[in-house]
Amino acid sequence: MMPTSNHQQKEVLTALLTGERHIQKLMNVCGYKDRDSFRKSVLNVMIEKEWVTMTLPDKPKSKSQRYVITEKDKKEI
Fold first, then answer.
1. How many CB atoms lie within 10 A of CB 46?
2. ∠ CA(19), CA(24), CA(30), 5° rounding?
3. How big is the CA angle at 64 (ends 62 and 66), to the nearest 5 degrees?
4. Could you give the CA distance from residue 3 to residue 68 in angstroms, rounded to a whole number?
5. pLDDT value at position 2?
6. Predicted model pTM
7. Are 32 and 2 a contacting pair, CB within 8 Å?
8. What Cα–Cα distance (Å) separates residue 55 from each residue in 21, 47, 69?
9. Which of 34, 52, 56, 70 shows the greatest Cβ crowding within 10 Å of its Cβ?
């Protein structure tokens, strides 16, 4: 598993500034190929810190799932 870096978190936040994104787009931005690894080491960390939210929180693995930056963090960037 690739360790989460501040650089990867910044890349995700930057990608989300223009709107919601699918996990595959965010994985590409960070150079990940494994969805579960990316979810565990990057997305879940950012969700726990309340930097990112899911559009479908009840269905975290849905093919329609998108991720968005929280309003609080959008203002800080």
1. 22
2. 85
3. 100
4. 22
5. 44
6. 0.84
7. yes
8. 10, 12, 10
9. 52
Which of 26, 74, 21, 18 is CA-nearest to residue 51? 74
Give exposure, 18-39, as e/b (b: 16+ Cβ within 10 Å).
Answer: eeebebeebbebbebeeeeebb
Pull the structure tokens for residue 45: 């960390």
- What are the strands, taking DSSP E only, across the chain? 52-54, 67-69
* Identity at 56, one-letter amino acid code: L
Residues of the chain with pLDDT under 70: 1-4, 73-77
Measured over the CA atoms of residue 20, residue 24, residue 28 and residue 34, the dihedral's sign is positive
HSE of 12, CA atoms in CB hemisphere, 13 A: 32
